Amino acid sequence: MKLNTVHLQINDETTPVNVEPHWSLAFVLREKVGLTGTKTGCEMGTCGSCTVLLDQKPIFSCLKMAVDAEGHEIQTIEGLERANGAELHPLQESFIEHHGMQCGFCTPGFILAAKALLDANPDPSEQEVREAIGGHLCRCGTYVRIVRSILDAAERARAKIGMEVAENG
Amino acid sequence: MEYFSPDNLDEAYRLLAQYGEDAVPIAGSSFFMGHREDLFDEVQVVINIKRLGLSYIELDDGGLTIGATTTLNEIFFSELCRQGAFRVFSETVAELHINEVKNVATIGGEVCIAGEVDMPVTLLAYDANVVIGGANGSRTMSMADFHRGYLNNALEIGEMVIEVQMPRPLVATGGGFAKFERTAADLPIVNVAVRIALDTDGTCKEARVAVGAATVTGVPRRSVSAEAALTGRQLDDQAIAEAAEASNDIECIDDFRATGELRSLWVRCGVEDALKRAVARAQAGE
Questions:
Q1: How far, in Å, are A160, B228, B247, B271 from residue B243 at the CA level?
Q2: For the segment A95-148, what is each residue's pLDDT rounded down to a tens digit?
Q3: What is the domain range of residue A92?
Q4: What is the pLDDT at residue A60?
């Protein structure tokens, strides 16, 4: 067994991990780093549960070799919480309010895909939202509420930015 | 399994030659990791080729060149692939509705996989040449010569795909892409790409009709009959319908996704659909 030491930049912290080349980033995040917010469903790039952001772009962490993630900024669902301190991210707020889930297994993946969308496009159309979550499955079938949650989160985020601009003159 | 991440082409070729059939070059890793059950026992050495500077899209007088490790989303967002006759490249990517895959999957990977994916059919319609690099220099071959079957191609030990080149289309060229799949995120059941160039009198000067995903060989194929039905003619609805009918010279595969019969029907529909778009664009002088 040949282990490679990689220094993964996860949620703004550098974490050294010994990995085998074929270990997926999803496996390493969950089993070696202990960040179990990233879910593994199909482990073959079909379900979207394992989505994380790599340099702000959504990727399936089950299809990414952990050894190849070195040098990139990885953000998991846990990072969303940390980045906002005690406050929830607008996406988390609106997923709770609109109940954009049933069992919740797919939710971290949906939220990160939506975050990447909103960061790039703060005012997406419904079609753009649906396009952004095209690779995600919700086996409970709550897509309508998920789309509603994301559109509402976009509105919340825009309102918040508007308020900050007004406060700062 | 051993892992290497060379930072220059010579080193990559050396590693590929040294480990031979035990080694695979990897860029996006989505296919490799997605087929782990079949591949992990076979592969002893993984060579990461993402640091070799093979991510680029360039347009010059000769045509369009795309480096092997360019991701599908880089193609999608590239201005060069969004205008004129090459806009079909961006449209082809748009038909895969999985953003997470488009952020990592590369054109070189799709060229080597050949079946199950969309880009090779568009490359075939645009007369793409595959540039293969190796320690003894590079060689160039057409897509048709490159593909030997599903996951089977002309690469020799110590070689890898480094770029694809498309000649600059003639004036008054239009392209079109059409695809049938079960869901937005599923693999294609049929995909079709066409390219039409018109003469000054409005007749068809050059036609390419390429069909993928449905073929029995597992690699995209050109419909010679459909192309013959178009060349030299005024491209009205009648001519397009006849060309679509003629595309049944492509023998379609029966599998769990669809029967050969259904695929043949969809090939016809896809060819007609893509041709209508292509002809309208060529006539608009794009």
A1: 56, 8, 6, 8
A2: 999 999 999 999 999 999 999 999 999 999 999 999 999 999 999 999 999 999
A3: 85-167
A4: 98
Q: Which of A29, A56, A81 corresponds to the end of one domain?
A: A81
Cross-chain residue pair A21–B29, CB shorter than 8 Å: no
CATH number at residue B256: 3.30.390.50
Is the predicted pLDDT of residue A85 greater than 80, yes or no?
no
CB contact under 8 A, B26 and A68: yes
pLDDT at B286: 59
Within 8 A of B101 by CB-CB distance, chain A residues are 45, 60, 63, 135
Of the candidates A44, A59, A67, the beta carbon closest to that of B103 is on A59
The whole-model pTM stands at 0.95
Contacts of B48 in chain A (CB under 8 A): 65, 67-68
Compute the C-alpha angle B100/B54/B137, nearest 5°.
Answer: 140
| Interface ipTM | 0.93
Contact A58/A38 with Cβ under 8 angstroms? no
User: Chain A residues with CB inside 8 Å of B50's CB?
Assistant: 68
Q: Tokens standing for A53?
A: 């952001």
